[in-house]
Specification:
Layout: E1 2-5, E2 11-14, H1 30-39, E3 54-55, H2 67-72, H3 84-97, E4 101-105, H4 108-119, E5 125-128, H5 133-141, E6 145-148, H6 169-179, E7 187-190, H7 203-215, E8 220-223, H8 227-237, H9 246-254, E9 259-263, E10 273-277, H10 280-287, H11 289-293, H12 304-317, H13 320-323, H14 325-339, E11 352-356, H15 357-360, H16 370-382, E12 384-385, E13 387-389, E14 409-413, H17 421-436, E15 444-448, H18 454-457, E16 459-462, H19 466-481
Parallel strand pairs: 3-12, 5-6, 7-8, 8-9
Antiparallel strand pairs: 1-2, 4-10, 9-10, 11-14, 13-14, 15-16
Helix pairs in contact: 1-16, 3-12, 4-5, 14-17, 16-17
């Protein structure tokens, strides 16, 4: 992926690959989209994919595979134990991260489960730069407590700070002094921060954060699921990384940690996951949990075909031309939205463009889930499926109190090597129309609220008749444009 200046003077991302396999899309009329949204309980997770035009819900497991990955899947060794496929994946992970021990899992949250089972005890703390939904759920289910220690810049919606995902090192020192090192199960660093705009961390911050933990004998854990995007930002935004190759930056980051886990649904363009471990004793401590919850130690719930694809995908992650399309498409989308005055997280991060629902819909209180309402309205107006990342993605505490999220975001993920620039521009156009009619959008309320991870399968309804008003405005403007 490269940025090219056209003779018109316009700078646009240029794909450094060609499309050889396609999948047909359908753009349903707005009346059908409204029906589909109602049937889904105004929860974009419950939409049928057949009703979606551009699926920007997530980048997890929906990235495009390369021809080399597809070819590699044909040589998979389907042995239950001692598979040569596993050996190839294991050797590639040693090459990339420099850690000798590896436990395969069926995806990232399975790795989180094993880590929490092995390391978290009731009353212990897991400091993080920022939580992910499942990482927090696994810790709290074990009786632990998550402490979010992101720098203040991380919660600024608009900023020029290039590394808003950075860990607050002073706050980490203060927590250790307050609770004692023995009360810290491990320090978890997420590169980059999923729930607050895919914001990256600098190599300098990785080093400083983990140095504090090691000074006190505390285990360090990296969630590397979104590492590919972070590597791009290290290379392009951090002076000390400009002359380093992507593999060199990767190893410099990996050298900071005792454990690295990842979802290969993101890292490696496949479907699976795993835990890389530096210390053999720690590996043996967690080893027994894999056959108990996942599968045998040489497949861990993964298909061997997927393991072959991940092995090639890790090589492709080390290629700057392969990992920069996502960040550059996101940068284009964010710049276009920002130029139109549409509230969006800046600077552009990884994973996707993030609409700021609290500024987009300032008239909708947080208790009425503005990010969920905006995601629903955007689907109705465009056929684009995004994901709510706000208060809906939280869950009530033991007393039934609902915490308000730090941010109310609609994430528009850009899976790697999937969309064309014209499709991205279509989404920008429809977001622009919705912003012009933002006063029509109202809030949502639960009609079915699960206790755990409610955002996955909870059902809601609109408060008032705002959906009818939105449809009427869309029809009127569409008729005027014909």
């Amino acid at each position: 992926m490269a940025k090219v200046t056209f003779f018109s003077g316009q700078q646009l991302p240029l794909e450094m690959h060609k499309v050889r396999i396609i999948q047909k899309l359908t753009l349903h009329p707005i009346e059908e989209r409204r029906r589909a949204m109602a049937e889904a309980g105004y929860n974009t997770f419950l939409l049928q994919n057949a009703d979606v035009f551009l699926d920007m819900l997530t980048d997890s497991g929906v990235n495009a595979m390369s021809d080399q990955q597809q070819a590699a899947m044909l040589i998979a060794d389907d042995a239950y134990a001692g598979s040569a496929t596993f050996t190839r994946l294991h050797r590639k992970l040693i090459e990339v991260f420099g850690m000798d021990w590896f436990l395969p899992t069926h995806q990232g949250r399975a790795a989180e489960h094993i880590l929490a089972q092995a390391l978290v005890q009731p009353g212990t703390f897991v400091p993080m730069n920022y939580h992910f939904t499942t990482s927090k759920a696994h810790v709290t289910a074990r009786g632990g407590e998550v402490r979010e220690l992101i720098t203040a810049a991380g919660l600024e919606v608009t900023s020029d700070n290039q590394f808003k995902g950075n860990f607050d090192v002073a706050a980490l020192r203060a927590l250790i002094a307050e609770q004692g090192a023995e009360a810290i199960a491990y320090v978890r660093v997420e590169a980059g921060t999923n729930l607050i705009g895919g914001q990256p961390l600098s190599l300098a911050n990785f080093r400083e954060t983990t140095a504090v933990a090691r000074e006190h004998g505390i285990l360090t854990v990296l969630d590397a699921s979104l590492l590919a995007d972070n590597l791009h930002f290290n290379k392009t935004r951090e002076e000390q990384c400009r002359d380093m190759t992507i593999p060199e930056i990767t190893r410099a980051i990996a050298d900071c940690f005792d454990v690295i886990y990842f979802s290969a649904r993101k890292l490696g363009f496949g479907r699976g996951g795993g835990i890389c471990i530096r210390d053999e004793a720690l590996y043996k401590q967690m080893r027994g949990l894999v056959p108990m919850y996942e599968g045998f130690l040489t497949y861990g719930g993964m298909s061997v075909r997927e393991m072959e694809a991940i092995t090639v995908g890790l090589d492709e992650t080390m290629d700057e031309d392969m990992i920069n399309q996502g960040p550059q498409f996101i940068e284009h989308m964010v710049a276009e939205l920002d130029a139109r005055g549409i509230p969006v997280i800046t600077p552009a991060g990884g994973l996707g463009a993030h609409l700021d629902a609290m500024r987009f819909l300032p008239h909708v209180p947080q208790q009425q889930y503005p990010a969920g309402a905006l995601a629903s309205a955007l689907y109705i107006a465009s056929g684009v499926r995004g994901m709510e990342r706000g208060t809906l993605s939280e869950q009530r505490d033991a007393n039934g109190v609902e915490p308000m999220a730090n941010m109310e975001l609609v994430r528009l993920a850009l899976p790697r090597r999937v969309f064309t620039l014209s499709q991205v521009n279509y989404a920008i156009d429809r977001i622009g129309w919705l912003f012009e009619h933002r006063d029509l959008v109202g809030g949502l309320r639960f009609v079915e609220e699960p206790e755990i991870l409610r955002f996955f399968y909870g059902r809601l309804e609109p408060i008032g008749g705002w959906v009818d008003e939105l449809l009427a405005a869309f029809r009127a403007d569409l008729a005027d444009s014909l």
